[in-house]
Structure prediction request, 743 residues.
Amino acid sequence: MRHTISVLVENKFGVLSRVAGLFSGRGYNIESLSVDETIDPNISLMTIVTTGDDLIIEQITKQLNKLIDVIKVVDLTEVDHVEREMILVKIAPKQQDKAEALRLAEIFRGRVVDSSPKTYTFEITGDEKKIAAFVELIKPFGIKEFVRTGKIAIAREGVKKTR
Amino acid sequence: MRMSGAEILIECLKREGVKHIFGYPGGVVLNIFDLLYDNEDLQVILTRHEQGAVHAADGYARSTGRPGVALVTSGPGATNTVTGVATAYMDSVPLIVLTGQVSTGLIGNDAFQEADIVGITRPCTKHNYLVKDVKDLARTLREAFYIATTGRPGPVLIDLPKDVTSDKTTFKWPEHVSLRSYNPTYEGNKWMIKQAARTIHKAKKAVIIAGGGVVLSNASKELRELAEYARLPVTMTLMGLGDIPGTHELSLGMLGMHGTYYANKAIQESDLLVAVGIRFDDRVTGRVKDFAPHAKIIHIDIDPTSIRKNVRVDIPIVGDAKRILKSLLSELKEEEDRAQWEPVRKAWLKQIGQWKKEHPLSYAYSDTVIKPQFVVEKLYELTKGNAIISTEVGQNQMWAAQFFKYDKPRTLLTSGGLGTMGYGFPAAMGAQLAHPGKTVIDIAGDGSIQMNIQELATCVLYKLPVKVAILNNQYLGMVRQWQELFFKERYSCSHLDTVPDFVKVAEGYGAVGLRAVKPSEVEPVIKAALKVKDRPVFMDFVVDWREKVFPMVPAGAAIDEMILGEEAEEKKTKKLRAVK
Ligand SMILES: Cc1ncc(C[n+]2csc(CCOP(=O)(O)OP(=O)(O)O)c2C)c(N)n1
Ligand SMILES: [Mg+2]
Prediction:
């Protein structure tokens, strides 16, 4: 099963490599990873999406906890949470499709962040399903470039957190 | 007071109680070595190879329980430590490994003797550091010792750029260390301990499996009390030998691939396993699917990742073995009604006694050719078990585990997890340094001893009377054994062809060399070796190269699918010797 794990770490050099090395060294896979400083500049937050059966996920969270620089590990999949991801997609639609493309972006509450005579660049934010749906629909318009942030996630308030 | 990085380092080591450093110099660590030149509190042991230095620090640590310290230069000096660091990591040995590094301004430039040792050792250290600013040095060292010695111990490596050793700063000793991201659990969960007591109470065929965690937590007294009170048989992993005395009536010796028949049998028949400080390595479990099929498992370990990594666990208890065993015993005393369980336990022990009688550890003695097991037995007999034994890896290691009875923890130093050939001799050297008056013996193979044979010079130089018992079979014996049993006797690269004259090698280094080729010579050689107090001794035992380690569970088989030696050997000779 797919799990979204959030990992609070000391913001020290080498931490990313410790976490990444843990996954590669033990044969766990990382589907997506996003890292940045938190409000406290001494602490970073990593959001890792990984897959595995219950025993593997248990090992992953335990092994993460065991790393000295890891402060806290939360498997968000176990709790009610909100996930978001952002994509930037540059398309080069035919002249007659431009209006349709813009409308599509609008339906998905996307924004045009750049445009040129031949291209549009859209910014879309949402959960996995929404992003996947948008990508499916925009494909026929001719995707020139595509980038995504990787998932970030946060627990909803008022739900119990697991270790 | 303003001090240089090197001065701070020495001061911190002193305050951490370090007396000995195993080291090897080189360009970027000369500031440090310069201070060690006339330092009266810290003795540097100059080994002949950095791997030797780390294994020696490891033997020092395992035999004392205090962290061992090694100091080496950058680049090749640092990379030469990797096997030693990985060995210590697998067996949870507290080490501080100090490596020199090129100056901070040169890092990343592929400078002369630069190696990214922090990157290289990240997966085989408990933690590691690159100190980039002399102001961080004291705190880093304090943290390193704290991390290495608490929770599940392990090696910590600190990389010290040359300029950091010469830069100056005001020295301030951090009185306290605390890390918000590192808080090992020591107290076991009370409710779980209660559950465990209840489960033990109900069990009819319980077995304790004790591992290296019991050694590390100094819990052998508590373990023994529990076993004796509840009348539970105890089997030990290689790392746990000595947790309870090998001569104890409740001891089943070692379990696993080369474990005793009765230990493996008891595990497979048991209805409850009480696993303490073990990690269920594949050499212990055999085919996991069929391991202890009828047993519930109580698993006590300080490292949560050990639990449910390899086997299912019914009652996990995370914490310090000593504290948990103590509470478990007092819970049991409340829970247990002797009259009710005593006959049940008696029956189980009787059954195990039966298995012991059917298939004791044994070998076919000969009075014409020296059997390696006979040498180990004789070492036990002539030292009365009062010795620190280290081993190399291979058949020698397994015979040392089977035929020497360890009565105390920290008396067997062996590379269990990594299985490092070349570990035993330098480890014995470190142990001898820590225990000057004690008999320290490396039970070695003719292959393994050649992996760190250069440390003879170190032992001679520092007058360390380490004894090395070489079970000389002219083969990489364990490899040969696998080839004989599983590769149609195709002995690819397992015959050593040329083995040096170990007596001459020893003498060449200024050590004592002795040889035995007949069984009758074994005792006199050992006796002569034990008398030597000022130099290392090589005892070259020319042993039967055909000998194999039994019982043996083939890789991937269940642990009761054992090949027993007797069956094969019995046909050839009737002279079976049972070992008490
Ligand atoms: C550094 C290292 N290389 C290779 C091995 C694989 N290996 C395990 S046992 C063994 C043979 C050891 O030979 P020897 O030291 O003569 O011991 P014996 O089995 O003959 O007692 C080898 C090569 C190892 N354990 N360690
Ligand atoms: Mg050999």
Remarks:
- The domain at 372-549 of chain B is CATH 3.40.50.970 (Rossmann fold).
- Chain B has three domains: 2-170, 190-358, 372-549.
- The two ends of chain B are 63 Å apart (CA to CA).
- Confidence is low (pLDDT under 50) at residues 571-580 of chain B.
